[in-house]
Design a protein that fits this description.
The protein is an alpha/beta fold and 510 residues long. It is built from 21 helices and 13 strands. The strands form 3 sheets. Strands 1, 2, 3, 4, 7, 11, 12 and 13 form an 8-stranded mixed beta sheet that branches. It has a 3-stranded antiparallel beta sheet with strand order 9-8-10. The protein has a two-stranded antiparallel sheet with strand order 5-6. The protein is globular, with a radius of gyration of 24 Å.
C-alpha cells in the first residue's frame, strides 16, 4: 500500500480565528533565500500541522494502457537520481493543494511510483480553501514544503515576498528547456526581490479552446474543419444554407449562470488582441468598455445573435442548462453541428456515443494571425517553500509525465511536459487534446477566475447574462462591469463613478 497520507483536516480553528483578527498590514516573514551551494539544507523545518495527520487508505490506482516503467529521468546526477539510489529514504515531504476527492486520488496515484522508488513519504493536505489556508500558513512561518498552485497569480505574490525557492538553483536551465515548451517556462518566470527567477515547475493542465462537432453528420454533409475564424463563419453559413443549425449555445448554470459566456469572451480576447492587453484586462488596467474588450464581446455576438446560427435562438441561450447544450449534437438529424466547451463536457455526452464516430473536436480557430494559436485553460504549478534534498527530489519528479499518470490512466488532466505522448493516455480524447495544447503558441488562464470576486463571478457573469438575454445593451453592460471593480482595484474611483452613470465612449486606456 502506498505510504502517501491524505491529510483531510483544516488548519485548527483557533489559528484561523487569530489570523482573521490580525491586522491586514502584518508584514510578511523574512525572505527565504536560495541555497548558496548545490547541496540543500538537511534540517527539516517545524511541522506545519498542529495536529497529527490522519492516515487514509488510497483507492487502488487503475492500470493504464501505457507502462510508465521505473522512475527514471530528471536532471543528470540530480536529486531524483540520488533519491532513487536510497539516499533520502525515510524522509517526509509535505504538499498542500486544492485537490479533493476524487481528483486528489488521481494525483496521489501519480506519486506512488516516487514513494516506492525512493522511500520518501509524501503527505498531502487538500482543501478547497487553499488560498486562505496557504496564506495563513506562510504568514505564520509554517508553510508546507511544496504547494500545488492552480494558477500563477497567488504564487507570484509569494515569489515577490521572497518565500519561494528558485527552481534554477538546483534544476539546470537546459533541462527545463528540454522538458517544457517555451510558453510554460515564460509563465513560470517571476519577479523576486533578487530579480527574475523560476517560481516552480508546471505539471498538469486542461484546455478550453475546443469546438465539439457531430462527426458522423458533419462528414456526411461534406464539411471540413475550419482553419481560420473566417472559415468558421463560412462553415456556419453553409450549414444554415443546407437547412441545418450550426451552434448549440446555452449558459444557464443556476447561481453561476454566465460563466460559459465569460469563457467565450476570454477565448476571443486571446485571438483579437495582445497577451499584454489580456493581462491588463484581467488585472483591471484595461476597462471592459475599451475598444479591445468590446470588440471581443461583439465578435462573440456575431455568432450568438446571427439569425439561424444558434439552436432555439437567442431566447434559449440563458434558459437552457449548459450541461444540456451538447445534446443537440446527438439527435437525428442533429439539432446543431457545433458546440464550444472545455474537455469536461464529454461527461455530458450519451453513454453510447463513440469518439471519432459520433463526435470529434477541433481547435477554436485563430482570428488575427499576429496572435498565433492561443489556448485558454487552467494548469497547476508546483512551488517550493522549504529547501531540503528530499523536497528537491520530489520537485524534479514533478517534471516527469509519470507524475501525472494518475490522471493519464483515467482522465481529467493533461501532462504539460514535452515527454508526454498521446499513447500515454488511457482516454484517446485526452491524448488528442494534449497534442493540440502542445501546439499552442500562448496560454492564458480563465480571466474571470483571476478577477476580484465582485467582478469575475459577479458583474461579469451577470452582465454577460443580461447581454445574452437582450435585457441590457452592450455599452450599459460593460459600464456596469467596470463600475463593479472594488476600490483600489481596476479602474479609478472617478472612472468607476462615471461608468456607473453613463456608458463611456470606446476609448483605449492611456
Amino acid at each position: 500500500m502506498s505510504k502517501i497520507s491524505k491529510i483531510l483536516g483544516l488548519v485548527m480553528a483557533a489559528t484561523m480565528l487569530l489570523a482573521a483578527c490580525a491586522p491586514a498590514t502584518t508584514p510578511p516573514p523574512a525572505a527565504t533565500q536560495p541555497p548558496a551551494e548545490t547541496e540543500a539544507p538537511t534540517e527539516a523545518p517545524t511541522e506545519v500541522m498542529t495536529e497529527a495527520p490522519t492516515e487514509a487508505p488510497v483507492a487502488e490506482c487503475p492500470e493504464g494502457s501505457f507502462d510508465f516503467g521505473e522512475v527514471t529521468g530528471g536532471p543528470a546526477g540530480g536529486f531524483l537520481e540520488r533519491a532513487v539510489a536510497g539516499e533520502f529514504s525515510g524522509t517526509t515531504v509535505s504538499v498542500d493543494g486544492t485537490q479533493i476527492d476524487p481528483d486528489d486520488r488521481k494525483m496521489i496515484c501519480g506519486w506512488k511510483a516516487f514513494e516506492e522508488a525512493t522511500g520518501i513519504t509524501v503527505n498531502y493536505v487538500g482543501n478547497k480553501e487553499f488560498e486562505a489556508r496557504i496564506s495563513i500558513a506562510v504568514d505564520a512561518g509554517q508553510a508546507p514544503d511544496v504547494a500545488d498552485f492552480p494558477q500563477p497569480g497567488l504564487l507570484q505574490r509569494f515569489v515577490e515576498q521572497g518565500h519561494i525557492i528558485d527552481i534554477n538553483t538546483f534544476i539546470p536551465a537546459d533541462y527545463l528547456t528540454a522538458t517544457y515548451p517555451e510558453l510554460w517556462l515564460d509563465m513560470a518566470t517571476m519577479e523576486s526581490p533578487d530579480g527574475p527567477m523560476a517560481g516552480g515547475v508546471w505539471n498538469r493542465g486542461f484546455m478550453k479552446s475546443l469546438v465539439w462537432y457531430a462527426k458522423d453528420d458533419f462528414d456526411a454533409s461534406g464539411y471540413t474543419i475550419p482553419e481560420t475564424w473566417d472559415d468558421l463563419l463560412a462553415l456556419s453559413d453553409q450549414i444554415v444554407a443546407d437547412g441545418g443549425t450550426p451552434w448549440c449555445v446555452s449558459i444557464e448554470s443556476q447561481a453561476a449562470t454566465g460563466w460559459v459566456a465569460t469563457d467565450w469572451v476570454e477565448d476571443v480576447m486571446l485571438r483579437t488582441t495582445s497577451l499584454e492587453n489580456y493581462d491588463a484586462w484581467v488585472a483591471g488596467e484595461l476597462p471592459f468598455a475599451s475598444p479591445e474588450v468590446k470588440n471581443a464581446w461583439e465578435t462573440v455576438g456575431s455568432i450568438w445573435f446571427e439569425e439561424g446560427y444558434v439552436y432555439g435562438g437567442r431566447d434559449q441561450i440563458v434558459t437552457t442548462r449548459f450541461q444540456d447544450s451538447p445534446a443537440g449534437l446527438f439527435t437525428d438529424p442533429p439539432n446543431c453541428f457545433l458546440h464550444r466547451q472545455a474537455s469536461f463536457i464529454t461527461s455530458e455526452f450519451p453513454d453510447d456515443a463513440t469518439y471519432k464516430e459520433d463526435y470529434d473536436f477541433f481547435y477554436l480557430p485563430p482570428i488575427d494571425e499576429q496572435y498565433g494559436r492561443p489556448a485558454l485553460g487552467a494548469a497547476d504549478i508546483y512551488a517550493m517553500f522549504n529547501d531540503r534534498p528530499e523536497v528537491r527530489a520530489l520537485m524534479e519528479y514533478f517534471t516527469l509525465p509519470m507524475s501525472v499518470s494518475g490522471f493519464m490512466n483515467t482522465s481529467g488532466a493533461l501532462a504539460l511536459q514535452n515527454g508526454a505522448t498521446p499513447d500515454m493516455y488511457a482516454n484517446p480524447v485526452d491524448g488528442d487534446i494534449a497534442t493540440l495544447l502542445a501546439e499552442a503558441t500562448s496560454f492564458r488562464f480563465d480571466g474571470s477566475d483571476l478577477m476580484p470576486g465582485e467582478v469575475g463571478s459577479g458583474s461579469f457573469w451577470k452582465g454577460a447574462t443580461d447581454w445574452a438575454s437582450g435585457s441590457a445593451d452592450l455599452d450599459t453592460v460593460l459600464a456596469e462591469i467596470d463600475a463593479a471593480w472594488p476600490a483600489g482595484g481596476a479602474a479609478t474611483e472617478a472612472a468607476a463613478t462615471e461608468a456607473a452613470t453613463e456608458a463611456p465612449e470606446a476609448t483605449a486606456t492611456p
